[in-house]
Design a protein that fits this description.
The structure is a homodimer of 301-residue chains. With 301 residues, chain A is of the alpha/beta class. Chain A folds into two domains: 2-175, Rossmann fold (3-Layer(aba) Sandwich), CATH 3.40.50.720; 179-300, N-(1-d-carboxylethyl)-l-norvaline Dehydrogenase, domain 2 (Orthogonal Bundle). Chain A is 45% helix and 21% strand. Chain A has helices at residues 10-21, 34-40, 83-86, 106-113, 154-166, 177-197, 203-207, 210-229, 237-246, 255-261, 268-281, 287-299; strands at residues 2-6, 25-29, 42-46, 49-53, 57-59, 70-73, 96-99, 119-132, 135-148, 171-173. In chain A, strand 8 and strand 9 (135-148) form a beta hairpin. Chain A is globular, with a radius of gyration of 19 Å. The mean pLDDT of chain A is 96. Chain A binds chain B through residues 194, 197-199, 201, 205, 209, 211-212, 214-215, 218, 287-288, 290-295, 297-299, and chain B through 194, 197-199, 201, 205, 209, 211-212, 214-215, 218, 287-288, 290-295, 297-299.
Chain lengths: 301, 301
């Protein structure tokens, strides 16, 4: 299968390399890492060793890649406005699009750009770090949840699940993409958000402050109220579960917090703005998310 | 009248100097500015000129000052725990105490420490800046609102109003001290708070961001709900008035924001913690203030 990886940051490098290693023809679209990747290939560092793909096909323009069977969008959502120019050379009749981006609104954008093509979304539950150009580090294998944007495309989504499983990725099929997107927001909204707004701190600073821990739970409650207004049946116990899994993470640096302290764009609209707007349209009040969003928009603007 | 000024930052220097100039015996308790003030006196720089008091009586210990007729507390509320040690040498039978501190809880503390003495509060609406040791700058004359902690002490509060008026300060008598404290919080909670939480910005950054402006109004709404649960009749139009007076301030730096960016303690409990606790006790929900308080406690901790 011919696969293009649009956006070769940590996520794009990692999953592109795994797909390439499992036998697919993978083309990476790169900007800053292009020269290094051309010379040295792509390197993946894992807890149990590392591998290097010397023959990675890397490109600076999508027109050099041409039409693919699968386009994996792994750009940061803050660069979404570039997609209308970047993607057309890659997309023909029958090309499938898979966004691995954070937050809400990414699959909708792809469907708007390519109404004739099938769109899928994957939520990555994984810790990845691009430690130097074309080198990605991954210490916990993690998992992906993949689902179709349209319920009728479940079968093709299952094929994508098999594609990633064959590449060695623990992959779940999710019949409802929106549900799993909101599920991920339950963690991302408070922990990515409060670690930025509290000045660029790690998750331990949130769970160890009685006040910030309460606020993180209240923010989760708002997201759950939004999700449940969309018809999902999140229970309050899901909040306690999020806290339970976050405590052992220790001094964990959420991706948005890393972006913030390193001066890179933060996905403010995808993670905080879009759920707020969707919930408002449904008549769900999110007073704390409103304040957090307003602060993040300024802090990361 | 023998007056001691406890805490000779911008507020203490300024009002102490005005009271001394109007003929009172004023003793200043100082720490860092002590040597300079002993050598050069106290200097007040105003828009229409400046004056220097070469013979200022400055002290490093309250035991050197002795019992006063009036004790003016102008320490930052973050140093309140020092008052139990500092004040006793100054307070005898009939000594009156006046706190010029920000926020809630300061007059209650004085009343707890000296249950036999009369306690008053003054809210300063003024822009002051201690520009170097023992030198304070004041460009807008501003005003003070003085009121008694106990309604029965209105007559003595009026005497304090006259004392400040005679010193050239525009002074209002406030029969209800609590009301004017909450009134000041309507501005301080959003503008001192959001300028810190948004990363150390000026008030123009708040009023020019549609989202932060909405959040500042919503925070004012919460404070007004708290105040009205205490029996005050704040109207919603008071919110629009606050915005109206803040816009022409331009790039104004609220005192807490200056403290924050300069690494000094911020009065988090007096301005945000205490109103939140009082409102909670009254059953008033303040979801946005809760989040702001939790963030400020961490940011300024």
């Amino acid at each position: 299968m011919k696969i293009s990886i649009v956006g070769s940051g940590a996520v794009g490098l990692f999953y592109g390399a795994l797909l390439q290693r499992s036998g697919h023809e993978v083309a990476y679209l790169m900007r800053s890492d292009l020269e290094v990747a051309r010379r040295d290939g792509i390197r993946v560092v894992q807890a149990d060793g590392e591998f290097r793909l010397r023959d990675a096909s890397v490109f600076g323009e999508t027109s050099e890649i041409g039409v693919c069977d699968l386009v994996v969008v792994a750009l940061k959502a803050t660069s979404n406005e570039a997609l209308a120019d970047l993607l057309p050379p890659l997309v023909g009749k029958g090309t499938r699009l898979l966004t691995l981006q954070n937050g809400l609104g990414n699959d909708r954008l792809l469907a708007e750009l390519f109404p004739e093509n099938k769109v899928f979304g994957g939520l990555c539950f994984v810790c990845l770090n691009r430690i130097s150009p074309a080198v990605v580090e991954n210490f916990m294998p993690g998992s992906i949840s993949i689902g179709p944007r349209e319920a009728g495309d479940a079968e093709e989504a299952q094929e994508l699940v098999e594609l990633f499983r064959a590449a060695g990725v623990k992959t779940r099929f999710e019949p409802n993409l929106q549900l799993v997107q909101w599920k991920k927001l339950v963690w991302n909204v408070p922990f990515n958000g409060l670690t930025v707004a509290a000045g660029g701190v790690c998750t331990d600073a949130i769970v160890e402050s009685p006040e910030l821990l309460e606020e993180s739970k209240a923010l989760m409650g708002e997201i759950i109220a939004g999700a449940n207004a969309l018809g999902f049946g999140f229970e309050q116990s899901f909040i306690d579960y999020q806290v339970k899994i976050t405590i052992p993470m220790g001094a964990y640096r959420p991706s948005s917090m890393i972006d913030y302290v390193e001066g890179r764009p933060v996905e403010v609209e995808a993670i905080w703005g879009e759920p707020l707007r969707q919930a408002k349209a449904l008549g769900v009040a999110m007073p704390k998310l409103e304040l957090l969003y307003a602060l993040l928009k300024r802090l990361c603007g």
